[in-house]
Amino acid sequence: MLNAQLNPVSWIFASKKISEKTYELHLTATMQPGWHLYSQVQPEDAVAIPTGFKLNNNPLITLDGKIKEIGKMEKFHDAKLDISANQYAEKVDFVQVVKLKSNVKTNITGSVEYQTCDDKKCLPPKTVTFSIPVK
Is residue 133 part of a domain? Predict the structure, then answer.
């Protein structure tokens, strides 16, 4: 029952205007001490579930490039299990640039699926939905 209550990752979803019709979406994860979150890109020998984002189709916006990761990536390797992982501790900011097709207010909705682990255990993958106002 304790595991059901355990939530070592908190998310903040926000948008930041960077030019007239261009915004950055910030999907920021903060991990409790000792926990880590996996990068979207994993080495071939990884068993970790990479963090994945789904952005729902919105006819008012276009995506500009891929989601970038801003944070201190750790390249983890477990010699005993011979597995590797690209992971973040403390905090990582996933940033997606979007462009509005016209000057309108809209929301960008979607979800993030992620797995978090500490040095003893991994929690089952979790999905969090979000709605980010862009105006």
Answer: no
Average pLDDT over residues 83-92: 96
Q: Does residue 16 sit within a domain?
A: yes
**pLDDT number for residue 3:** 46
The CATH number for 90's domain is: 2.60.40.1250
Say which residues have a Cβ less than 8 Å from residue 96's Cβ, sequence separation at least 6.
24, 25, 27, 53, 55, 63, 65, 66, 67, 68
Burial (CB < 10 A; 0-12, 13-18, 19+), residue 106, is middle
| Whole-number pLDDT of residue 81 | 83
CB atoms within 10 A of CB 8: 16
Residue 31 has pLDDT above 70, yes or no: yes
Predicted confidence at residue 5, as pLDDT, reads 59
Mean pLDDT of 29-51: 95
| Residue 135 belongs to a domain | no
Domain count, the chain: 1
Burial class (CB in 10 A: 0-12, 13-18, 19+), 26: middle
